[in-house]
Amino acid sequence: MGYVRGVNATSLNGDSNVTGADAPAPGRIVLLTTSHRVAPGLLSWPAWQALHGADRVLCADGAHPQLPYLREAGITVDEASPTAEELVDACAGGRTLVVVATGEGEPRLTDGLARLAGSGRIQMPDLELLPASYDLPGARLLDLVQVMDRIRAECPWSSQQTHKGLAKYGIEEAYELVEAIEEGDRDELREELGDVLLQVVFHARIAEEDEDEPFSIDDVAGGIVAKLIHRHPHVFGDETAATPEEVKEHWLRTKAVEKQRTSVTEGVPLGQPGLALAAKLSSRVRTAGLDVPLPHGEDVGYELLAMAARAEAEGVDPEAALRAAARAYRDAIRGAEETGAAGD
User: Fold this and answer.
1) In this structure, is residue 340 part of a structural domain?
2) Do 13 and 126 lie in a common domain?
3) Where in this chain does the record put each NTP pyrophosphohydrolase MazG-like domain (predicted)?
4) Which of 12-16, 33-37, 87-91, 221-225 has the lowest mean pLDDT?
């Protein structure tokens, strides 16, 4: 079904324009907006009240996903796209018109109503914007999943990617996220979080195609939700934790039962940066209450190991500390370069 264009006031309410002292009450226009991320038909109670109480319900999009549910509820919806002037005229006599907004909104209509209201030439009806359904927190993640589905199917590059091929990008994006955090750049932080999130959704989309062990983004999200609930018994269960240290003890104890590890070194990725690896091993030893002396040697690696262990014991991230020092060194280098260039 297509749009119905050029509807005049007579076709909307059966009356011609009436002006002057005999003009009837201006009526009411309700612009009803809905979210495509919420299942059609799940509308707020005020929205249903407005729809059932309206003298006329209009929608310019004959394929609007809400229309079958509105009609099933006994609401007559006319496919029409009147101008602002025609809509105001149709409200004459105190009539209430509800316009079910399309997915793009109704900018032509709302702009026209704003111009009429600003002109001061006519008595305007009451205008109301009524959100009929709302996005819940995280709703835009559904958009990301849909976009990723299409890209995977239609993009020549994305359709050929594998977990191994994307691995390097995950590392790069993680480092860029850390840099944004350390630089304190809020705009960059938001962007880099999105890039990291893309890697998660991309890998999950690829995983759906595995013939032997497929899983989806819902499986990924469901797994981490279950893990968080299980590892936070002080939030979702009967245990208590008053300090961050007690929370960490809960976490480690629960994790040990889950993994059934025989060594505190299990689960520590050896491929991570050296300082982070040394600090992680030192943290595992200290948390477990083990007395394991640091190995000694003349190689600089042993000196770095000792420094990383000391930093961890003092609550300092050695990787972050070194990056901060490296940035200071970078600034010093640039300063020397500028001084040298100025002296030429």
Assistant:
1) no
2) yes
3) 161-236
4) 12-16
Residue 9 has pLDDT above 70, yes or no: no
Do the domain assignments include residue 330? no
Same domain, 196 and 282: no
First vs last C-alpha separation in the chain: 75
Q: Which domain holds residue 173?
A: 137-215
Residue 4 lies in a domain: no
Rg (Cα) of the chain, in Å, rounded?
31
